[in-house]
Design goal:
By secondary structure, the chain is α/β, with parallel strands linked by helices. It has a single domain, classed as P-loop containing nucleotide triphosphate hydrolases (Rossmann fold, 3-Layer(aba) Sandwich), CATH 3.40.50.300. It contains 16 helices and eight strands. Strand 4 and strand 5 form a beta hairpin. Helix 13 packs across helix 14. The longest helix has 18 residues. It is globular, with a radius of gyration of 19 Å. The structure holds adenosine-3'-5'-diphosphate.
Length: 304
């Protein structure tokens, strides 16, 4: 009986998802963004930051949610119950996101300080008020190959973004920067340059995988907190892939995402691109990468 009820719910969810229209993308200053975001761009650009706002910025699929949960738990001194009171976009508004009744801007404006805000905006599109108020920013970056694969599967399951088409098609679209939030190259390089003139903690997904406690400690110090080893260990455990995958407050179980196509918490590893890239694509990618990364000191690990 229970099983039948569960099947029914799943079927209804599938149907609801199938009927939802796909979100579209448009442009702001040459950068592709979700159309809903473009439609209220003036409101976003004029957003008023406060000096104690913290921004978590990233290119999509870099490990944003992971970083958000780490930050939230640090701010809550490791209090798991407190961090589990609401889904992550309600605890930390997603600045430029607008879907149905959710608006990151409205969410942020209604929230008491100190606020933590998420954004995927490239550095030149961050509302100027954040620079004027000298807000602290944490940026997380992930190697382009794994990001591309993760983004492809994300677009398959997430109806707020356009259909990615086939993997081969998506490979070209991504390399051309014709995806929401623009070119990966420009994003990671732009934020990397900015950290020379602004308080930005630049994290790497690959380092977080290799030594989560070390990276969590970095975040803690950046936030000016001092937590015991015991609390740090608790945060490492509660932000591990398996725990976050089973946590409804971090795993994005909602109607717009069809986790049967691909779960939001998909694999969480370094080097999954090897299962997706053809040899020819890898060669083409490497040539493109070399050209585009020639003018930066940024280095990424693409495998363990
Ligand atoms: P995969 O699709 O490669 O599995 P974002 O939050 O920026 O959208 O990033 C999502 C990616 O980060 C997904 O990558 C997801 O599995 C991974 N991720 C989320 N939480 C993680 C964690 N605790 N440990 C490792 N990877 C995590």
């Amino acid at each position: 009986m229970e099983r039948m009820a569960k099947d029914k719910v799943e079927e209804t969810g599938e149907l609801e998802w199938a009927l939802l229209p796909r979100g579209e993308i448009s442009q702001v200053e040459g950068i592709f963004l979700e159309k809903n975001t473009c439609n209220i761009w003036d409101k976003i650009w004029n957003f008023q930051a406060k000096p104690d706002d913290l921004v978590i910025a990233s290119y999509p699929k870099a490990g944003t949610t992971w970083t958000q949960e780490i930050v939230d738990l640090i701010q809550n001194n490791g209090d798991i119950e407190k961090s589990r009171q609401a889904p992550i976009p309600l605890r930390q508004p997603f600045l430029e996101l607008v879907i149905t009744t959710y608006s990151g801007i409205n969410q942020a404006n209604a929230m008491p300080s100190p606020r933590t805000l998420k954004t995927h905006l490239p550095v030149q599109l961050l509302p100027p008020s954040f620079w004027e108020k000298n807000c602290k920013i944490i940026y997380v970056a992930r190697n382009a190959k794994d990001t591309m694969v993760s983004y492809y599967h994300f677009q398959r399951m997430n109806k707020t973004l356009p259909d990615p088409g086939s993997w081969d098609e998506y490979f070209e679209t991504f390399l051309a920067g014709k995806v929401a939030w623009g070119s990966w190259y420009d994003h990671v390089k732009g934020w990397w340059r900015k950290k020379d003139s602004h308080p930005i903690l630049y994290l790497f997904y690959e380092e977080m995988i290799t030594d989560p406690k070390r990276e969590i400690r970095k975040v803690m110090e950046f936030l000016g907190k001092d937590l015991t080893e015991e609390v740090l260990d608790k945060i490492v455990y509660n932000t591990s892939f398996d725990v976050m995958k089973n946590n409804p407050m971090t795993n994005y179980t909602n109607v717009r995402m069809n986790h049967n196509i691909s779960p939001f918490m998909r694999k969480g590893v370094i080097g999954d691109w090897k299962n997706q890239f053809s040899e020819t694509q890898n060669k083409q990618f490497n040539e493109d990468y070399e050209k585009n990364m020639a003018d930066t000191s940024l280095l990424f690990r693409m495998e363990l």
